[in-house]
Design goal:
This protein has 75 residues and is mainly alpha-helical. The chain is built from 3 helices and no strands.
């Protein structure tokens, strides 16, 4: 007996089953929003923001903190 299109689970059902399996493994779903680096003006805006932050009175201490918690040697 062949399976028709109506016999196969749709993408919504597959996603539901996947989420259930992940939850059973003790995981939970999270959604994050990140900057869209594909936008034409992304590089200009990132540069503008980095210059603005560099002029803060705490810029040196802020950068020292970032450097201290970064593992660049392990990359």
């Amino acid at each position: 007996m062949s399976m028709g299109a109506g016999d196969r689970p749709g993408s919504r059902e597959k996603a539901r089953r996947f989420r259930e399996r992940q939850r059973a493994r003790g995981l939970r779903s999270v959604q994050i929003w990140v900057p869209n680096t594909r936008l034409p003006d992304f590089d200009k805006e990132a540069h503008r923001q980095s210059l603005a932050v560099s002029h803060y009175a705490t810029a040196g201490a802020d950068q020292a903190f970032i450097d201290a918690i970064s593992n660049w040697d392990e990359v």
